[in-house]
Amino acid sequence: MRVPRRFAAAAGLLALALAGCGADTGTAVDASDASPITMGFSQVGAESEWRVANTRSVQEAAAAAGIELVFSDAQQDQDRQIEAIRSFIAKGVDVIAFSPVVETGWDPVLREARRAGIPVILTDRAIRTADPGLYRTFLGSDFLEEGNKAGTWLDDRHIRAEEPVSIVEIQGTVGSAPAIERQLAFAEAISSNPQLKIVASTSGDFTRAGGRAVMEDFLADLPDIDVLYAHNDDMGLGAIEAIEAAGKVPGRDIEIISVDGVREGLQALIDGKINYIVECNPLIGEQLMELAVKIVAGEQVLSRVVTKETVFERSAALAALPDRRY
Length: 326
Ligand code: GZL
Hints:
Layout: H1 5-20, E1 38-43, H2 49-65, E2 68-73, H3 78-91, E3 95-98, H4 107-115, E4 120-123, E5 137-140, H5 143-157, E6 165-171, H6 177-190, E7 196-203, H7 208-221, E8 227-230, H8 233-245, E9 255-260, H9 263-270, E10 276-279, H10 285-296, E11 304-306, E12 311-312, H11 314-320
Parallel strand pairs: 1-2, 1-3, 3-4, 4-5, 5-11, 6-7, 6-8, 8-9, 9-10
Antiparallel strand pairs: 10-12
Bound molecules: beta-D-galactofuranose (GZL).
């Protein structure tokens, strides 16, 4: 029978304690007998190149760490994620990690995990809850900082604008932490410039097809668009298809700001079709596994671990593209 690492760790600690009291347990658990850690991981989906890279990072890091990964793709559906988490609890995994597709609605299932004694790690996206004890740590980007970087760049670029600058925004998945916070911080960053006006904002659900469809509608409905702010490269690239189909020049007729920094986004930046990209780093697999090992071993970890990220203009994109892993 598999001895879950957490029981093996506890048994090992108990054996050590008893030995210290002179009791000869004769059955000290050798930690090397313990099974590898089993992690249940519920992924949002495969909606973008960022997500594909994030999944690959988690899977490769689990293999490298000798962690048994039970992986579930929710296809951007919260009910499927809740179902997956319940299956991990039933399986008796040692730790659960997941990237919540939206911010709310997680308390009941996370309370079930807590009752089962299974620690939970949030990766990539945060949740909104009145009970932060439902998870041990949140490893992911600072989306407010990302939105602030995007807005500050645009504000600096149009600091002396004497005419209104019409901005359209293609948001990520409705209700998701990145969409909420990238929208909030961007609007805040441009709020002191009276010429910068967001004239339309709609969700493209972080997909290329969604970005193209939303941009087609914007182009049909709005006579003058000066800037597009896309919450990820995939939607920005879809929007570029629509802009070109409308006979306009992306990056010149319509300036484009995007988030992520996937290969194709950097290439579009180099080609002058995107003007600025705020990086959002998907390669958090190694950090996730390090956190999981510590938590299962009963060690304390920081409740918030922010991933390191940068920004790209054309020269930085040229330098980064050759070694870009995603
Ligand atoms: C951000 C992540 C977002 C990416 C998108 O951490 O949740 O979801 O920006 C992805 O590309 O779909």
